[in-house]
Amino acid sequence: MKETLENVMLMGLGAMVMTSEKAKDLKEELLQKGEEAYKQGQALNEELKHNIKEKMKDNITVTVEKADLTKEELADKINELSEEDKKEILKLLKANKKKDA
Cα dihedral sign for 59, 60, 62, 63? Predict the structure, then answer.
């Protein structure tokens, strides 16, 4: 009976050690999966931002080319834009000015 009790205690101790090891392995695996998912999310986010900027450039160019606005109406439309969009338009205008020169 003493031997059986000792075996039960050793099995319990073994189970605790094994559980600890498995928990450590699981933690490392979860961390790795989380890091991978985070990196993929960042890459997808950057790609999405790039695609949105490209679409915005296309839409702004098309809108300006097709619009039949007076200078005042165009100025009003420009004032409605965000600062980032205004800077982008200014860059495009400067680039076009250099091409014409």
Answer: positive
